[in-house]
Amino acid sequence: MTGTWISTRAWLLMLPLLVVMTAVIGWPLIDTVRLSFTDAKLIGTEGGFVGVDNYARMLTGSNFQRALITTTWFAVISVAAEMVLGVLAALLLNQKFRGRTALRALMILPWALPTVVNATLWRLIYNPEYGALNAGLTQIGILDSYRSWLGEPGTALAALIVADCWKNFPLVALIALAALQAVPRDINAASIVDGAGPFNRFRFVILPYLAGPLLVALVLRTIEAFKVFDIIWVMTRGGPANSTRTLSILVYQEAFSFQRAGSGASLALIVTLLVTILAVAYAALLRKAAGAS
Amino acid sequence: MSKSIRNALIGATLVGAGFTGHAQAETTLNALFMAQAAYSEADVRAMTDAFAKANPDIKVNLEFVPYEGLHDKTVLAQGSGGGYDVVLFDVIWPAEYAANNVLLDVTDRITDEINQGVLPGAWTTVEYDGKRYGVPWILDTKYLSYNKEILEKAGIKEPPKTWDELAEQAKAIKDKGLLENPIAWSWSQAEAAICDYTTLVSAYGGKFLDSGKPAFASGGGLDALNYMVTSYTSGLTNPNSKEFLEEDVRKVFQNGEAAFALNWTYMYNLANDPKESKVAGKVGVVPAPGVEGKSEVSAVNGSMGLGITTTSKHPEEAWKYIVHMTSQETQNAYAKLSLPIWASSYEDPDVTKGQEELIAAAKRGLAAMYPRPTTPKYQELSAALQQAIQEALLGQASAEDALKSAAENSGL
């Protein structure tokens, strides 16, 4: 068998998939690009060509800049917290103790819940009149009176980040736990004999095995956090005073609530571009990491 | 043997064909409703069952979404080629729906009998540019509910007639230590906040638009927001109001944690229902107050109508369904959570019995209903105003500055 035949066969085998991908991703993407240069409405008019007007208006508008900052905060803090929590949970669940299997299974639960359910659950926990968080904190004396967690700009985004972390750290933990199984026991044992403390053991023995898989988790989570929509839509709809309005919510508002399909499309493409830049940067990092190990 | 099998097969085929034929004669309508305030989901299902019984050849599929999703769901379905035959729409949407050809013009379908029987003010709910895009179904405005027991304890004899009186009474209740924050509103970043604001705008004699341009940043529009801010910062208003929707207001009021609450018709009978409420039997209702020298009472037009989409393949059946849902008979039978659109119903003892107080408030409130602006760009205007209200409440901007930037961002 020649190389060309293998290559041809590979393409032939991939053909059905490529056709489907082109139909469900490629065509909508091309159509979105076309829309983004028009002033089309969601219903009613097809719209005329307006050049780069939509892009210029979106990029210079204060709404976009504010939403970009909100989104960045949300993504950076929630992903960082999820990575730390995930690794800690994985290290814990890698220890031998009674009930470990049950706990490992339980940990998946938040991640397995649909986001809308998770968001509704947290909205109840944060409820300013009868929420569990208020009740708990006042009963142990940390708070004097009930607070409106989702009604204050200072706490609303933080409250959303906590809810998002609770849902998504299990994914990181799962990936880290799988990676931990690859750490050879003899090296770990040898480092203990050599007198390495827990921190050094983690830093020099365990972390090198975790780095690659964690980078994958980081890429996945960052991209998802950057696109966040449902958890925020259910919990605050972007409020109070738009302090939790992320880019995806802005896209939704522009394209669907205000029905400006044209400028909505341009905004969606800007977000896509930002996510692509992130993905490419991470891919480069991944290659570098792979090369190093 | 084989003959009997063949006969059985033929028989089965015929029976099958019979079923198929029957299924083809049946028309299926898809209707979109909301699960929030006004008629409950159970009420809508019961009304629809009565229709199905009378029209066995028409099947109606019901779908319920929260109010916040009603507009977007309707528009999205329409944008992707349809899906619903009958949709519930808010008084603020006919302009946009008409401009984008979402609803059928049903002006010619409305009979004289319907035309004359329905309260004249109710028709404004479905009208744009002289045409009617449906039939009003929920005739609603925000009333001021009060807890009689708390008012009595505070030594207050009469519920407030002006917004200033409301503030004074709330202060008396707060000062006596009866409640920390006596007033509850729905000021979440949503349309609900605009309804409360509009009520106050109507009380202060304000205007949203003046010859198409925003006019709410001064005069009555500014007075209205200033009232909200003062009430909020002085602690007379429950600070959680800024994340409340109507159902949250109802829960707070039903738990006896509010002396006053601004809410739709439906709250009155639910809050007086011992199964639902801790304050049953203690609930009073009056029209939202006025402002001395400017208004006697105030009210927002929060009515909603039922319309036929332009993509519906069964407009005749859809119209039949709407006529049933909006009929006086149907509305009188379910007049506890939403009051009828029919003028004569308000004198019908079957309707008024047990809710005389609500009917009395409705007669004055409904007559004073003030519209939110009629413009195809309403959604943008509303989003800008929602932001302004919350910024002013949170102290991020003065009421005047917040309203000025809302006027700039309104797209008008």
TrEMBL record, chain A:
Pfam families: BPD_transp_1 (PF00528). GO terms for cellular component: plasma membrane. It is a multi-pass membrane protein. GO terms for biological process: transmembrane transport. Keywords: Cell membrane, Membrane, Transmembrane, Transmembrane helix, Transport. It comes from the Bacteria. PROSITE patterns: ABC_TM1. SUPFAM superfamilies: MetI-like. The chain crosses the membrane at residues 12-30, 67-93, 105-125, 156-183, 204-223, 265-285. It is found in: Cell membrane. Its main location: membrane. Residues 68-286 form the ABC transmembrane type-1 domain. CDD domains: TM_PBP2. Belongs to the binding-protein-dependent transport system permease family. This is ABC transporter permease. It comes from Sinorhizobium medicae.
